[in-house]
Design goal:
The structure is a homodimer. Chain A has helices at about 1-10, 15-25, 25-30, 45-65, 70-95, 100-120, 125-145, 150-165, 170-180, 185-210, 220, 225-240. Chain A is an all-alpha fold.
Chain lengths: ~240, ~240
């Protein structure tokens, strides 16, 4: 538990600090202490159970973003994001081993996903859309890396589903338009983005360690593994004109 | 306007009465007074504009039904309905003439669809799911028939999209399970179903006539055209053990 608290504190820093600290401990690699996400070997049913439970969160965010869109144009555009996440959910369900029901696979991760959903819910439509953009980006990158440790065929199938289609460009366009029309949104969005990255990184940490913190990969050894993921997030925020 | 009021009154009857009155005027056919929906010749952009605006309503209902599902099992099942309606929306957008933007096509029908959305919203999850089941069933049957008057290629393409996949069986299963677990739901659901059929038939009437009631097909001549549509609805309600 002490280790979890340490990580939460670590996630509490701003992403720039996080990136810096991720970039710093290069010598750790030399000491053979670095753990790559793809070196972990998750069980397919557990991997997919976590991923599906989180997709269910993202999917409901997308549904809400469609429902609360301020214009017909935004609503119609966001339907495409909803189509992509619901199709991805179906495609991931089909990758489960034959004898594993989706509900059974998701069940252990569902409560934690629901808590995550509340944390990243957002106070209004703009926050919802940024949340959808940021959490989907981070989670997709994370699960793509974490899936590297799956059995070859499973890994390829999962990566195909995760990378087949993305709603990121359309979400970015909606956000860019909103910020352009109301530049005062930018600082609130930047702040919200920082909260989102913290909450989502914690969710990733829990995905690897489990809430009981019984994983063989200690947090400090995993830090470098999140490097690329956070860097990609920073680029996405930059593209929106927001400070990560 | 007088004619619209008359039709609203007509829709005010229970579906059984409606079916009876649809079955009654057989002699009207002999008099050459019958108008089949497929005899009307809608313009493709208007037809798709109406259909897309209503799909947007159904889609948001599906999103809400996922979000408010009482169990993880129901939530996971309903994702499939959401995937089907959001894919259908995308496929219909692709059938629009190249020079017609989806928003432009939908715009004239959007306000009326939003009103419709409020009428069929439902007070809780059970009513939402019945609404999704009933309105999707009626609207799909209606637009399949009404699409019969489109140009050959367009008609075939539209029918392919409308009939490719259906979420009806899974919605029926959810409703059957809910009613089985709580038989007292049945009478409330039956009542709600009757309201839904009235509201949806009115929406179909407006689709054909336009709110200005300037269509060449008078309401009394269209009544027989709704016969099959209402009969299919009655069968769907019967399958749920509910009196239509």
């Amino acid at each position: 538990m002490a280790r979890l608290v340490a990580v939460v504190r670590w996630f509490d820093r701003t992403p720039r600090e996080v990136t810096r600290s991720l970039l710093r401990p290069r010598k750790v690699v030399a000491e053979g202490d670095r753990v790559l996400l793809q070196d972990l070997e998750p069980r397919l049913d557990q991997y997919l159970g976590q991923l599906l439970a989180l997709q269910l969160v993202v999917l409901q965010q997308a549904g809400q973003a469609v429902a609360e869109a301020p214009t017909l144009a935004a609503k119609a555009n966001l339907v495409e994001a909803l189509r992509i996440v619901s199709t991805r959910y179906r495609d991931l369900v089909e990758l489960l081993p034959r004898d594993v029901e989706p509900l059974v696979a998701m069940e252990p991760f569902y409560a934690s996903s629901e808590r995550f959903a509340k944390e990243v819910a957002g106070a209004d439509w703009y926050e919802q859309v940024l949340s959808l953009h940021v959490t989907t980006g981070l989670l997709t990158d994370f699960f793509a890396a974490y899936g590297g440790g799956l059995h070859d065929d499973d890994r390829d199938a999962v990566l195909r589903v995760l990378t087949r289609e993305t709603g990121q460009p359309l979400l970015a366009r909606e956000l860019q338009r909103a910020i352009q029309q109301n530049p005062r949104l930018a600082s609130r969005m930047a702040l919200w983005g920082r909260r989102l990255v913290g909450d989502t990184l914690l969710q990733m940490y829990l995905a690897v360690h489990g809430p009981e913190d019984a994983s063989p990969a200690p947090a400090q050894r995993l830090e470098p593994a999140f490097n690329d993921i956070v860097a990609a997030h920073t680029r996405r925020m930059d593209a929106l004109g927001l400070t990560a």
